[in-house]
Amino acid sequence: MDRQGDVALLDDPVARDLLVSAIPARLAYIWSDGSPRVVPIYFRWTGEVIAMGSPPRAPKVRVLESNPGVAITIDGTTWPYKVLMIRGDADVTVAEDVDPDYALACERYMGQEAGRAWVTGLAGRPMARIAVRPKWVGILDFETRFPSALTQ
Questions:
Q1: How many other CB atoms are found less than 10 A from the CB of residue 116?
Q2: Alpha-carbon distance 54 to 2, whole Å?
Q3: What whole-number distance in Å separates Cα of residue 115 and Cα of residue 102?
Q4: pLDDT tens sequence across 20-67
Q5: For a FRET experiment, which of 3, 46, 69, 138 has its CA 20 to 30 Å from that of 16?
Q6: Quick check: 69 and 89 in contact, CB under 8 A?
């Protein structure tokens, strides 16, 4: 079994299931005043990065450009809870149209028809792509992997 922190955990069945689920990720970052922030956000795992879309004028975009360190969690909703935790740096780029990975994420979350309709409504507007390449990965499954406070 891979150790907590090892990016090879992304190949674990728990991680693979959560990475294709319709559960929003929680993106945590540090605000300009030093306080922590967390937001739910649609994502798509590309096999290399967690890709997320955002309006380019969203406050988080400005902050991530100057302080890119983030944590992401995707939490299962049924017992035994499955939790995927990722840490890395956010790379923010702005394009003149909807990010293709965001479009695919919308279809996964909303269904194909509703997702495409949503993206069509955004077409032609700038979008920020937030891409996080995992540097640290952890899994809790409450069967074989527990929070460290329960295992010490």
A1: 14
A2: 33
A3: 10
A4: 999 999 999 999 999 999 999 999 999 999 999 999 999 999 999 999
A5: 69
A6: yes
- 16 — phi, psi (to 5°)? -60, -45
Set out the domains of the chain in order of their start, with CATH numbers: 7-140 (2.30.110.10)
Amino acid at 60: K
Residue 17 DSSP code:
H
Find the DSSP H helices in the chain: 13-19, 59-66, 100-110, 112-122, 148-151
Give the long-range contacts of residues 96-100, CB within 8 A, separation 24 or more.
Answer: 96/124, 96/126, 97/123, 97/124, 97/125, 97/126, 97/127, 98/53, 98/122, 98/123, 98/125, 98/127, 99/51, 99/53, 99/127, 99/129
Pairing of strands 69-75, 83-95: antiparallel
C-alpha dihedral sign at 88, 89, 94, 95:
negative
Name the residue with tokens 């640290």. Answer: 136
Helices (H), 27-90: 59-66
Instruction: In whole angstroms, give the CA distance from residue 31 to residue 3.
Output: 30
